[in-house]
Design goal:
Elements (H helix, E strand, L loop, with lengths): L1 H4 L8 H20 L1 H4 L19 H10 L3 H13 L7 H21 L3 H16 L8 H20 L1
Helix pairs in contact: 2-4, 4-5, 4-6, 5-6, 6-7, 7-8
Pfam family, one: Arm_PDR
InterPro entries: CDP1-like_a_solenoid_1, CPD1-like
Protein name: Plastid division protein CDP1-like 1st alpha solenoid domain-containing protein
Length: 159
């Protein structure tokens, strides 16, 4: 329920925002009323059924995964999804989910003093956002570009 009321990253389409809300409510209902969906952690019983997510809800699902810190999962799913022909109507939101995931990877790299890895992840995020004209004016892109400019001498020095 905290996620339901949380603000999401700027730039998502209203369809992605609506699918995020729908997905949250669907998962909540399944967790509350379908014990086979949730399994039981205490008794080490894995879930018996999976959640099927339609293409229209995938951007919302990636947005949620990003919000809860599942950066690697967002990257793995998102990279495959944007290549799929069925993803075309959702590419804006899929790329918008991938870019912050790359920023998360950059943050981890910088925290581990792996400056070049962090720099590369920021560059990938920038490239993702620049690849779609509709993402060219979001604040995240300008923040990434400012960070890259500030980090360029440091990344060059560490090479």
């Amino acid at each position: 329920m905290d996620l339901k009321s949380a603000e999401i990253e700027e730039g998502y389409t209203m369809d992605a925002v609506a699918s995020r809300q729908g997905l949250l409510m669907d998962v909540r209902e399944k967790l509350l009323f379908e014990p086979e969906y949730a399994g039981n952690i205490k008794e080490k019983i894995p879930p018996k059924s999976s959640l099927r997510i339609p293409w229209a809800w995938l951007p919302g699902a990636l947005c949620l995964l990003q919000e809860v810190g599942e950066v690697k999962l967002v990257q793995d799913i998102g990279r495959v999804a944007v290549q799929h022909p069925d993803a075309k109507p959702y590419v804006h939101d899929l790329l918008l989910s991938l870019a912050p995931a790359e920023c998360g990877t950059a943050k981890i790299g910088f925290e581990k003093n792996k400056v070049s890895q962090g720099f590369e992840a920021l560059a990938r995020a920038q490239s993702l956002l620049r690849s779609k004209k509709s993402l060219g004016n979001i604040a995240l892109l300008s923040q990434i570009e400012e960070s890259l400019e500030e980090l360029a001498p440091l990344a060059h020095w560490n090479c």
